[in-house]
């Protein structure tokens, strides 16, 4: 899914339980987690300004499984990995795609869901997703995501690519008719299309073998492994399925 760049540090309770977090994590009493807060239904803010969504619920479930106290904060997407490197937080749970480039900067947990891409356009439009039909079209995507990278590589010289700082901004331009279509992660697109029936998916879903993981600093290997084990546990004990069903009528893990 995105993509995309996330938070967690060790705590006294975790140390008492024998969890060997990295030194940076050991000093703290709280596991600090970052998410974007602008990527519904995975991470966004409700009317009270509280962070909610699939990513947020997963983060809380993992903290409960690891028996640590967590704080979750919002961080703009463009600065989310730099914030992790600057130790503003200890992990990123923000629908971030595990990519080769990102793995040079951060360590990823095991995947906690799989992502696909798909075009969204206005219902009744003549938009088609073939390369020939896309020639000269203006296509939007969120900046620094696998969607924008896919478009820039596959359709270079074919389309006019327009990128946005947030996915919400991309959707607004689609509704305003300033782009012919948006290419985005399929699950947030599913949520948006469900709420905006004048728009539809166009073409087949695009499988780019996109796995979504939780990012930590490379030095926090023990924390990464603990998170990966917690993901496996909540999958096995039904916690993950309950969270999944809250947002989607199908399993997004595979």
- Separation, N- and C-terminal Cα atoms: 13 Å
Q: Radius of gyration over alpha carbons?
A: 19 Å
How many strand elements?
11
> What is the CATH superfamily classification of the largest domain?
Periplasmic binding protein-like II
**Residues in helix, %:** 25-40%
What labels would you give this structure?
9-stranded mixed beta sheet; D-Maltodextrin-Binding Protein, domain 2; 254 residues; globular; single chain; alpha/beta; 11 helices; 35% helix
Task: Describe the protein.
α3 packs across α10 (221-236) and α3 packs antiparallel against α11 (239-247). With 254 residues, the protein is of the alpha/beta class. The model is unreliable at 4-28 (pLDDT under 50). It has helices at residues 12-16, 23-26, 54-66, 80-85, 100-103, 131-134, 146-154, 167-176, 186-195, 221-236, 239-247, and strands at residues 31-35, 44-45, 51-52, 70-74, 91-97, 106-108, 113-122, 138-142, 160-164, 181-185, 199-217. It is globular and about 55 Å long. β8, α7 and β9 (160-164) form a beta-alpha-beta unit. It is built from eleven helices and eleven strands. It is 35% helix and 27% strand. It folds into two domains: 12-114 and 210-247, D-Maltodextrin-Binding Protein, domain 2 (3-Layer(aba) Sandwich); 115-208, Periplasmic binding protein-like II (D-Maltodextrin-Binding Protein, domain 2). The strands form two sheets. Strands 1, 4, 5, 6, 7, 8, 9, 10 and 11 form a nine-stranded mixed beta sheet that branches. The relative contact order is 0.21.
